[in-house]
Amino acid sequence: MDRLIDAAIGYPTAIFTALLLVVLVYWLLALVGWVDFESSGIDVELQADGDPGEISTLAGYVVAMGLSGVPFSIVLSVLVLVSWTLSCLAGEWLMPLVPTLPLHIAVGTGVLLLSVALAIFVTALMVRPLRGLFVTHQAMGNASLVGQTCTVMSQRVDQRSGHAEVAQRGAGIQIRVWTPDDNRLTKGDAAVILAYDETANGYRIEPEP
C-alpha cells in the first residue's frame, strides 16, 4: 500500500493524480447538478480568432485517434484514469529500480509520454461501444415541411382552422393548417404546404394540382 501511495504522489504519476482529482470533482459537481453533462460528441468549434488550418488539423487528430462520437467529459475522464493507472504501475514497479535523480527524471518523462500514448489507444477501444448511445438526431424544423404534400384530416379547412397529416417514416406528423381563400378541401384530400406562419402557428396550404 505504501508503494502505491509513493507511486501516486511521485513523478510522473503525480501529474495524473492531480488531473484525476479534477475529474473526480467535475463528476461530483455533475452529480449534484452544478455543471452540465455534455451529451454531444467532441466538437471542435472555430472561434472568431482561430486558424481554420489548425482547427481542421486538430479535428483530424481527434477522429484519427478514435476519440470522437462521445461526450468530451467521458473521453477525458477515461483518458486520465487509464493514464494514471499505467503510470502508477510503472511508478510502483519500474521507477524504484532507477538509481540516480537525473535518470529518474528521464525515465519518468518517458513513462509519462508512453502512458498517454497507450491511454489514447485504450480509451479509443473503451469508448467505441458507447458511440451508439450518444447519436445526435436533428429535430425537424417547421420550415422543413414547406413544399411537401399533406392529407387533410379535418372536415374542412378555412382561414382559421384545419388539420392535416404529413406522411413520414413511421407515424405521420399532425399539423395545423389554413387557407386564405375559399376552397373545397375536405377530409382525405391531398394538399401542398406553401408556407409556415409563425404568428398563427400553422401552415398555409392549397389543393394539390
Structure description:
With 209 residues, the chain is an alpha+beta fold. The chain has helices spanning 2-9, 13-31, 52-64, 72-93, 101-127, and strands at 149-152, 163-166, 173-178, 190-197, 202-207. It folds into 2 domains: 2-134, no CATH class; 142-207, Nucleic acid-binding proteins (OB fold (Dihydrolipoamide Acetyltransferase, E2P)). The protein contains 5 helices and 5 strands. Strand 2 (163-166) and strand 3 (173-178) form a beta hairpin. The model is unreliable at 39-56 (pLDDT under 50).
Number of helices: 5
The main sheet orders its strands as 1-2-3-5-4
Overall morphology: rod-shaped
| Main beta-sheet annotation | 5 strands, mixed, barrel
Strand content: 5-15%
Uncertain stretches of 5 or more adjacent residues: 39-56
The total count of strands amounts to 5
What's the number of domains?
A: 2
* Radius of gyration, in angstroms, nearest whole number: 29 Å
Report how far apart the termini are: 81 Å
Query: Which structural category do the helix and sheet elements fall into?
Result: alpha+beta
Mean pLDDT: 80
